[in-house]
Amino acid sequence: FYLFTDHLGSTVVLTKDSDGYILADSLTRYMPFGEYRGTAPSQAMTDQGYTGQKENMEIGLIYYNARFYVPGIGRFASADTIVPNPTNPQSFNRYSYVRNNPINFSDPTGNIPCETLGTEACTVDGEYVDFQSQEKQYDVTEWLASEMVINVNGPEMAAIQNIFQQPKNSTPMNGTTGIMPDTRFLEVLAGPFYELNKGFGLWDIKRKMKTAIGEGITLCGLDGCGWFDYSTPGNIHFGFIAAATDIPKGLSLFAGGALEIKEGSAIVSNWQTLFEDPRDWAAVQFGYQLYETYGSDMVLNEFQTALTADIRATFQPSPISVPSQALAQRNGFSPGAFNYQGQ
């Protein structure tokens, strides 16, 4: 589904698709400090509510990264760790929210009202402008979580599922990998799955991502963010789709190593992972884990819950010097934004 927001980034309505079909009971209105105006929406649809932050309806709190906010009283649950603007007396009330001006400002970091940064994007749109005023988006967390679900439920998967309706056959055991693959898996790998995920295939998202963002991208779990190689989202996406297709991990590893060899990027020391970079393989395995745990209707909160610091540490880091600390940004990328279509 698609989220539509107001001027502060608060989710006000959800639609089933881009055609604008409004989901029942999704229309939401807020009081100035974040209380619901009328009936609260179902959190099963989305946990992004007031100013786009994560809500926990069971305890009535909203997560603002640095601390929790209590909309019922218009105050944070804990004191600010800084005084963002000593020249403004309101800043010395370290529990107050956006200096008691919630109509015009938001505080996505939980530390500093957007207006202090002096950016239009912050004061008008309530963006996650912790750095660079959203002039360039590096954070692809929200986009990736949504894209995997869209694609795994999309029409491209139909051809793959048709193959699995055919009779099952097996090939002889492979002495190197120990794999006895169902021949349907081989047909998928050599057919529609390969066409979608091969170099310069539709879902070879790393190429367009490198062009649009650069060699370093950001991914954020609930416990923090990190800078990673631009290929990481594509590897996670690959694993998610492969898991949905029931392709064994061993075959995916073999396919990844074959691609490394074909593109001339294979390293001899990676022979234990069939020449696939172990850090790339870690991202693919994470994609498998996501699908096996949450299935085809995974939501952003589940994705970020799984994306722990320990998991992030296994990914391939950014190959370039990063421009700043890795912080969350609101998503501005549309579905299919990085599909490769010969451009």
From TrEMBL:
Residues 1-103 form the Teneurin-like YD-shell domain. The keyword Repeat applies. Coiled coil: none annotated. Keywords: Repeat. InterPro entries: Rhs_assc_core (IPR022385), T6SS_VgrG/RHS (IPR050708), TEN-like_YD-shell (IPR056823). It holds the Pfam family TEN_YD-shell. The keyword Membrane does not apply. NCBIfam families: Rhs_assc_core. This is Teneurin-like YD-shell domain-containing protein. The lineage of its organism: unclassified sequences, metagenomes, ecological metagenomes.
